[in-house]
Design goal:
Number of domains: 1
Strand content: 5-15%
Helix content: 40-55%
Order of helices and strands: HEEEEH
Number of helices: 2
């Protein structure tokens, strides 16, 4: 049964990522006039997983498959973005750059939602014997 929803659970992770990134970007936009504020970006920190015998698997690439056929585990953290051009007040947030990131993130989120709806629609179609 878990294999039936495996694709949806992977997309669930993508939706969580884009939701969390939207929150970080919104915080950057909200602090556009705060003196000395440095913008943040959501970064992925790979987490080593234990395969049961005390040995940890190291994912050298974020697309590696984990222990149970899952993608390699990771956690998300907001880290200060490296920006070289701060304003006179020390604020390094560029409203145009942040708004373009927000728009791109929104498009990716909506794309993932469309894929989830499509997959769930196919499952519903199959569950109703093609009706």
């Amino acid at each position: 049964m878990t294999e039936l929803f495996h694709g949806v659970s992977q997309l669930h992770r993508a939706l969580d990522y884009h939701l969390e990134r939207q929150n970080v970007l919104a915080s950057n936009v909200a602090n556009v006039d705060t003196p000395g504020y440095r913008p943040f970006e959501l970064v992925r920190q790979d987490v080593a997983s234990d395969n049961g015998d005390g040995l940890r698997l190291a994912a050298t690439d974020r697309r590696h498959i984990g222990v149970n056929g899952e993608l390699a585990p990771f956690r998300l953290e907001a880290a200060e973005e490296q920006v070289v051009n701060a304003g006179n007040d020390g604020n390094a947030v560029s409203l145009e750059r942040e708004m373009s990131k927000v728009a791109a993130n929104q498009l990716r989120y909506e794309g993932a939602i469309r894929i989830v709806r499509s997959q769930l629609g196919l499952l519903r179609y199959a569950a109703n014997d093609g009706r």
